[in-house]
């Protein structure tokens, strides 16, 4: 998305290469905090609803991300395009944090392999959409990308994660968090030696 966004601002709004790259770099900047927030929200959904909460958060973030990309494809001014890109980036990073919140539940024995597969999926999508951008241009390609993300978001409802009490027991997680918070509130004990 970052490379396509830089080309988009250069071609659509006649921005210099430097300005286009600076605007598009905002997409990566959001990664500093938004991916972690997406993962944190996934953790909170897990505490309240178990793995289904994580999967619902995944659906929600992908759905909003797709809508944001569609919005970005229809913007007509530089200012609106920058705002749409910023919002889209937030949504993308939230969804990525959500995705990596689900990864450990897929297969505990092969978590590294699952992470590798998930990360490679992003690269495959990048190649597919690079071909799309070469064929249809930016506006239409962003529209198709957004529609694709919206459609894919519904897969979240069909994911089945094998039950594992250590991962799925929301009550256990609540107890752990309660105990951790209780320990943080203990007064300091003076050493008598």
In brief, what are we looking at here?
One of its GO terms (cellular component) is membrane. The chain has 9 helices and no strands.
Molecular structure report:
The chain has helices at residues 2-13, 17-29, 31-49, 51-74, 78-106, 111-136, 138-153, 165-168, 170-184. It contains 9 helices and no strands. The chain has a single domain, classed as Growth Hormone, Chain: A (Up-down Bundle), CATH 1.20.1250.20. α3 (31-49) crosses α5, α4 packs antiparallel against α7 (138-153) and α5 (78-106) packs antiparallel against α6. The chain is mainly alpha-helical. The longest helix has 29 residues, at 78-106. 82% of the residues lie in helices and 0% in strands. It is elongated.
Structural classification: mainly alpha
- Per CATH, what is the topology? Growth Hormone, Chain: A
Give the tally of structural domains: 1
Low-confidence stretches: none
| Tally of individual helices | 9
Q: Provide the CATH superfamily.
A: MFS general substrate transporter like domains
What kind of oligomer do you see?
single chain
Report the biggest beta sheet as strand number plus sense, adding barrel if it closes. Answer: none
Estimate percent helicity: over 70%
Our measurement of the CA-to-CA distance between the termini, rounded to an integer number of angstroms, reads: 61 Å
By CATH, the architecture is named Up-down Bundle
Mean of residue pLDDT values: 86
Assess the beta-strand content as a share of residues.
Answer: under 5%
Rg is: 20 Å
The shape is elongated
E-strand count: 0
The CATH class turns out to be Mainly Alpha
- Written as H for each helix and E for each strand, in order along the chain, the element string is HHHHHHHHH
């Amino acid at each position: 998305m970052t490379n396509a966004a830089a080309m988009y601002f250069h071609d659509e709004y006649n921005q210099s290469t430097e300005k286009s790259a600076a605007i598009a770099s905002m997409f990566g900047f959001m990664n500093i905090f938004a991916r972690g927030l997406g993962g944190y929200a996934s953790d909170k959904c897990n505490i309240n609803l178990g793995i289904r909460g994580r999967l619902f958060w995944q659906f929600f973030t992908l759905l909003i991300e797709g809508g944001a990309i569609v919005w970005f494809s229809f913007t007509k001014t530089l200012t609106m395009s920058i705002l749409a890109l910023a919002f889209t980036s937030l949504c993308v990073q939230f969804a990525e944090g959500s995705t990596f919140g689900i990864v450990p539940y897929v297969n505990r024995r092969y978590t590294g392999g699952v992470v590798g597969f998930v990360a490679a999926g992003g690269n495959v999508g990048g190649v597919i959409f690079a071909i799309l951008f070469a064929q249809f241009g930016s506006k239409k390609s962003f529209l198709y990308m957004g529609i694709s993300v919206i459609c894919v978001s519904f897969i979240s409802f069909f994911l089945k994660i094998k039950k594992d009490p250590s991962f799925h027991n929301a009550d256990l997680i609540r107890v752990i968090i309660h105990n951790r918070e209780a320990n943080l509130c203990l007064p300091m004990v003076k050493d008598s030696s």
